[in-house]
Amino acid sequence: MEAHNTTRELPYCEEIAEAAKDGDQPQGLEFVGILVALLSTLISTFCLMWIKRSTEVEKGLPVLPCACFGGSFGKPWRRILVIAMVGNLLSEAFLSTIAYLFAPLSRILPVAGSALIFSGLIASMGLVPGIKEKLSIAEWAALVFTLCAMVGTSLSGPNADNVMAFDDWQAQWARPSVVVHFVVVLVIGLSWLLLVTACTARNPWAVGTLPYMVVSSASSGGLGSWAVLFCKVWMTALQIAVTTGDTRGIHYWVTWFSVGGFALCGPLQLYFMDKALTGGKASFGVPLYFVMIINLTVLLDGHFFRAFDCMDGGRAAAFAVSLACVAAGTCMLAREQQRSTPRVADVPTEGPAVAPAAKPHDASPQSLFSEAPSASPEPGRTRCACDVSARDSSSGEATC
Hints:
By secondary structure, the protein is an all-alpha fold.
């Protein structure tokens, strides 16, 4: 690992600056890395849209056809979900890796924000069967504003192109703030897991509501950021062993701890991602997930690798303002999501029984392309906006 310690005698911030001058990306080919990163982001967005579709057409089905997932061979299972997750994983594992070979992370990270625009285009054009949503001018403005803010966080945030020597990664766990960061994320994630599984009666938010989606996205993003870091640790140890023959990193306890951490955080991140995309509009759920995972990963990298220590006051202020703008843009999207959600009070309680118009992406579990059939209401009763119960037109009492 001597090759990774050539600037070790320098102060940490000077070490980062020195390493940045000696980047190993091919000069003049950054545009190749940016194009590959765009392709990877587009594929990932399509995969997330299909995961969103899976929450509608495969609702209630086991993830895999085996007993450990509550299923059995020969019975229906969530094929769309599994295929989309594998596609997303392959895109991140191969295309993103290729992109990093040609362009530094500071150029790649802003490209990931384009997923917000991709998700809006895919939803509005109906490129995924069963999902077609008309976005208002306010929604497009919120998506563009949030994208610009995320580019700002990438450009003004911590420089993660070059980090400390691998030998120093293990020592970061001696910092109490790193341990607290991990414990807080893990406790929040496990607590939310209990509320959506074993303790649903104590969960104050129903599935598909805005708070449910936000907490699920935040849990998925927080655990996903640690999964990315853990993956980076053991992949770096493996890369050093293969390229230099130095296997010391493989025997570090932090390497094996990262393997276990990835095995814990990775599946939980995917589980909460599925929950975050349940209900609501695809043009809101997918951007919300990307906002959480990208920004929380930036924050963790800057904290763990001490990149925040090397930021001057002006850059730190710009980063804080950009994060505030990201939060404001997300709130704008959330407001539009709430406005587009029908309320029971909006449905008239008198007059002839009329079934509500079905949303284009409300499909039945039996069909990928068709819309869900709407049962005819009983005489004297009209459908509520929730489309699951009725209101007595004679008494005016709601049974929702």
